[in-house]
């Protein structure tokens, strides 16, 4: 059975991303001097007028001085800052495709993504430049220094270009999209997402994908607010940003939705729970978006009462599941109860919302209009309400495909246009969606995906109550009987594996749950790893309950 949204369909504009979101900001009250971004650490501000002016200068420079043409790929490898948004919109206005890279990447991880997407130009910070430089020194990438643009002034002896060098007032041919076919066939973004195989995959998203994703989610939010009796005048204005713009969660929420709604974003440059709470109190923050680990830190904070959090009206939580106890704990402590949602990179981020309208514990809410869902069993048979199966999604928000991976794209998008999420759940009679399990071979640490295709091993996610998130744990099969039977040797090898991984991957991919040995990795007849068995084994060993 195919389920439509409880919200009515909405008309999707057939325009490019910069035109849609920047025009929407003006329509929603953004003036030239309205503050768009405030960097709390650098004490720098960017207004909506400056965003409009600067993104055009960046687009002009890319076209006229860097030779960027329609369809070329330009990467942003940077932490959140006030220059991220004008860079992003400038890349798209130039007709190029923006590829975001996690600022937590080390040299080898960055090199993989650079070589896979073949970016012609990279925007970065001085801190991330050191990672690029290391990748270049090791011969991992062949990008030229003069195609690397570093925010700030250039330094003597360095060959990269300063940010000032890309700013131009020359005329250029701005990207213009007029039809739905153009919007659907013109790529805008490449955001990398781990999946069931070893290396991350580039998710290619079109202008139609992202405009549809934002329009439909905003429409759902407005519909639920109306049903909940919330008046339009009660909308919040000041948002605290801690989610990385490079992640689909942060990009779709802040660079798209909150820009379109003319909000003011306060950027917290480096997260700590006390810096987060202090920022809310100091700047009278009205709303923020978090991941579950932050909610856990709030509940366990020993001095929460010393912060004035009375201004907080709204808190959204995404990127991973939240326990009932954590939600109830936060609701008791804060004036704003966390609102959950669900989404994936392949469907432009969040596409469900839970609000005060018909709230149900454990549900991720209702799905957006212009978006159909269905649930299927392991044989592909369609299921009805309250029947558990794999969640599949269809609509204009479903990705164009995986970069350079047509077979993998065909595997996850079926002949009817449904994207198979790899997540298990069900929908009830009122339209509430529940996510109950994950069949994809990946876990999430603090909202970031971790690939689990480790050679001669299997990785599972285990709950870490202290961090309030899943952490990676590896089961390894040692290569000979002597190693398996000598406990001291086995323990040493496990520590070596953990150290080996830690030295080569970003922090969220490290095996924080430890490494343990197993005689054989359980698999089904087709060779797929049976991670539920491994998790059951772990829980039994720790005397935990399913």
TrEMBL record:
GO terms for molecular function: CoA-ligase activity. It holds the Pfam family AMP-binding_C. Keywords: Ligase. Residues 29-403 form the AMP-dependent synthetase/ligase domain. PROSITE patterns: AMP_BINDING. Residues 452-528 form the AMP-binding enzyme C-terminal domain. The keyword NAD does not apply. Belongs to the ATP-dependent AMP-binding enzyme family. PANTHER family: AMP-BINDING DOMAIN-CONTAINING PROTEIN-RELATED, LONG-CHAIN-FATTY-ACID--COA LIGASE. This is Acetyl-CoA synthetase-like protein. It comes from Linderina pennispora.
């Amino acid at each position: 059975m195919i389920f439509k949204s409880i919200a009515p369909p909405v008309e999707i504009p057939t325009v490019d991303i910069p035109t849609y979101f920047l025009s929407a900001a003006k329509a929603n009250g953004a003036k030239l001097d309205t503050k768009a971004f405030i960097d709390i650490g650098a004490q720098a501000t960017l207004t909506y007028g400056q965003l409009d002016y600067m993104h055009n200068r960046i687009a002009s420079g890319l076209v006229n001085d860097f030779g960027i043409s329609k369809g070329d790929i330009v990467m942003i490898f940077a932490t959140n800052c006030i220059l991220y948004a004008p860079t992003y919109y400038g890349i798209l206005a130039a007709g190029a495709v923006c590829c975001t890279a996690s600022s937590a990447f080390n040299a080898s991880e960055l090199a993989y993504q650079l070589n896979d997407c073949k970016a012609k130009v990279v925007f970065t910070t001085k801190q991330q430049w050191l990672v690029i430089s290391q990748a270049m020194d090791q011969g991992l990438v062949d990008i030229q220094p003069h195609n690397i643009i570093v925010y700030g002034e250039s330094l003597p002896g360095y060959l990269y270009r300063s940010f000032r060098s890309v700013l131009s007032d020359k005329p250029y041919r701005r990207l213009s999209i007029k039809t739905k076919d153009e919007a659907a066939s013109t790529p805008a973004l490449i955001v990398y997402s781990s999946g069931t195989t070893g290396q991350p995959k580039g998710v290619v998203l079109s202008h139609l994908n992202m405009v549809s994703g934002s329009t439909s989610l905003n429409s759902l939010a407005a519909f639920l607010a109306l049903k909940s009796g919330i008046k339009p005048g009660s909308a919040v204005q000041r948002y605290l940003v801690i989610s990385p713009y490079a992640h689909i969660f942060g990009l779709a929420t802040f660079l798209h939705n909150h820009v379109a709604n003319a909000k003011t974003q306060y950027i917290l440059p480096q997260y700590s729970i006390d810096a987060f709470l202090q920022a809310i109190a100091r700047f009278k923050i009205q709303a923020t978006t978090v991941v579950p680990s932050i909610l856990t830190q709030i509940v366990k904070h020993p001095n929460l009462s010393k912060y004035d959090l009375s201004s907080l009206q709204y808190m959204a939580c995404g990127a991973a599941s939240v326990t009932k106890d954590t939600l109830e704990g936060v609701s008791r402590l804060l004036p704003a109860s966390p609102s959950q949602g669900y989404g994936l990179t392949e469907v432009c981020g969040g596409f469900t919302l839970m609000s005060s309208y018909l709230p149900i514990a454990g549900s991720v809410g209702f799905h957006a209009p212009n978006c159909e869902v269905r649930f299927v069993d392991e044989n592909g048979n369609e299921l009805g309400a309250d029947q558990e199966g794999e969640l599949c999604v269809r609509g204009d928000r479903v990705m164009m495909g995986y970069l350079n991976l047509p077979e993998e794209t065909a595997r996850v998008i079926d002949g009817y246009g449904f994207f198979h999420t790899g997540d298990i759940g069900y929908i009830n009679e009122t339209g509430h969606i529940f996510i109950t399990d994950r069949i994809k071979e990946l876990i999430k640490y603090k909202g970031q995906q971790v690939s689990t295709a480790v050679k001669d091993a299997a990785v599972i996610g285990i709950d870490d109550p202290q961090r309030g998130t899943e952490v990676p744990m590896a089961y390894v099969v040692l290569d000979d009987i002597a190693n398996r039977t000598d406990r001291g040797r086995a323990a040493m090898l496990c520590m070596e594996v953990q150290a080996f991984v830690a030295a080569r991957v970003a922090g969220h991919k490290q095996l924080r749950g430890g490494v343990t040995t197993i005689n054989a990795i359980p698999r089904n007849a087709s060779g797929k790893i049976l991670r539920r068995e491994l998790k059951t084994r772990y829980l039994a060993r720790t005397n935990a309950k399913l």
